[in-house]
Design brief:
Elements (H helix, E strand, L loop, with lengths): L17 E5 L3 H4 L7 H21 L3 E6 L22 E5 L8 H10 L1 E9 L2 H12 L2 E11 L4 E2 L2 H11 L4 E3 L1 H8 L8
Helix pairs in contact: 2-6, 4-5
Length: 191
């Protein structure tokens, strides 16, 4: 018995991005990143929605955590609901950029598109964006699900403008719900 591959089944297929959750760990929340409790709860809710959608869509999920933190290695540090599954990738970095882990860089180059959420820490958004541009990777920040460690605030237009100006390339951003809507598969039940 042989298998026949029908290319027409994949004619409208598009590559799915890799969603990257940066430091969804308790140690990042201890100082609340300069956010009120309700703002922090909103960021976490958006991160959860993005993670759920990515898993529902079959997207690759990568977790990047701070390898310089002594709590690393403790599975109890993950925020409830953000524990990696066996199919997820986990990368540790020793600098602000997620690309500080060479294996992360390989995955990023292979995928071509990354979507970021979480708590990158001071300089994390800017350095990761600059490295993504150098690697030729399209990068999108979920602005309501990403805390910019530079301004100790939810990633906003000012932070994105600074990142874009520094990299001299466009850095994409969108709200979580808009990203979810744009990456949903079309409903073919009526066809």
């Amino acid at each position: 018995m042989s298998f026949q591959f029908d290319k027409r089944s994949f004619a409208n297929a598009h590559a799915l991005p890799v969603i990257v959750l940066v430091d969804p760990c308790h140690h990042r929340l201890m100082n609340r990143c300069g956010l009120s409790q309700s703002e922090l709860a909103g960021v976490l809710a958006h991160c959860r929605a993005a993670l759920k959608h990515a898993r529902d869509m079959g997207m690759a999920v990568a977790f990047v955590r701070d390898g310089t933190n002594p709590r690393i290695g403790s599975n109890s540090d993950w925020i409830k609901g953000f524990e990696p599954e066996r199919s997820d990738m986990i990368f540790e970095r020793r600098a602000a950029s997620c690309y500080a882990n060479p294996y992360f860089g390989e995955i990023a180059r292979a995928s071509g598109e990354l979507v970021f959420a979480g708590f990158p820490g001071p300089g994390g958004c800017l350095s990761t964006a600059a490295d993504a541009v150098r690697a030729g990777t399209r990068i999108t920040f979920l602005e309501d699900a990403t805390v910019d460690g530079e301004s100790a605030n939810v990633l906003g237009a000012f932070s994105l403008a600074r990142i874009s100006a520094f990299t001299r390339f466009e850095v994409y951003s969108t709200g979580t719900q808009d990203w979810i809507a744009s990456t949903k598969m079309p409903d073919r039940s009526h066809a």
